[in-house]
Amino acid sequence: MISVPEHITLSQGAGGRDMQRLLDDVIYQYLDPLSLQRDDAATFALNSLAQSGDRLAFTTDTYTVSPLRFRGGDIGALAVNGTVNDLACSGAIPRFLSLSLIIEEGFALEELRFYLQSLQQAAHSAEVTIVTGDTKVMPRGAIDGLVINTSGLGVIPSDRQPGIDRLKTGDTVIVSGFIGDHGTAILGARSDLQLDIDVTSDCKAITPLTELLFAHGGVRFVRDATRGGLAAVLNEIASSSQQGVRVRETAIPVRPAVRSTCELLGFDPLSLANEGTFVAVLAADTAGSALEELRRHPHGLHATAIGEITDRRPGKVELESAFGATRLLDMPRGELLPRIC
């Protein structure tokens, strides 16, 4: 029996026997054999999807995180959770993923197995199925180790209508937990910084919390605070709705280790990426009970109301300090922390 080489070769991306052996002996071993469709396209029965909702949500994302492993996660788990979370924010119940691997020649097979196993575990936890995919191999030096693309398909129940156009003056703005954890964990994992940062990434699927929110009702808008962090999401809300957003700085949950790392390196925790934390706008009369629901779940213990939608300063975000003074919180600019997802 011919074994698969210990390092990826160009021939394993060329479509011949070596590639088929890589698929059969390695990649397919981490995918559900009953769900994976080996045709040119995955097919779905529309009647089964229609039982869960009346609309589909579709999203795609490519993951280039550096380093590939970090405290609390890795590129495999990130590639599942990031795409699942985009679907969840639209109100969808995530169902299916595609998986595309772009692998550098010479990449260790043991490393690939590690990320595939992590990806498999994340998909199982998020209750999504990988149904199709693609594998390419690039020459040594053309990419940095491994790049993963996932696309996701979900079903939106008919009673869910989140959207930026639904915001009203007085609505409550919440975050689902601590902010800046993922960006700080990436900083700690980069060897060139040589920092011992005791912060774990929040890399996880947010579907348990978004499902609680939508079941509770009063949801106007949801967005996961990834690149650009909380500051980017708040500014997107303000500019897209042309309403004001007023946020209390003291209400925003930031871990002391995240804050101190940002002070040391010159980052703003409000602009650091998150990979399992979202911002939601809720009807004011439902926000209190919705937060109680979230805090009953282990992932929502630190869910917090941080501000409200206002008719002041349309299109702008106002940040209120502990002393009552306010300043405008701008959209993050320039080179932020690169390759965080």
UniProtKB/TrEMBL annotation:
Residues 168-318 form the PurM-like C-terminal domain. Signal peptide: none annotated. Residues 39-156 form the PurM-like N-terminal domain. InterPro entries: HypE, PurM-like_C_dom, PurM-like_C_sf, PurM-like_N, PurM-like_N_sf. Pfam families: AIRS (PF00586), AIRS_C (PF02769). GO terms for biological process: protein maturation. Transmembrane segments: none annotated. PANTHER family: CARBAMOYL DEHYDRATASE HYPE, HYDROGENASE ISOENZYMES FORMATION PROTEIN HYPE. Belongs to the HypE family. This is Hydrogenase expression/formation protein HypE.
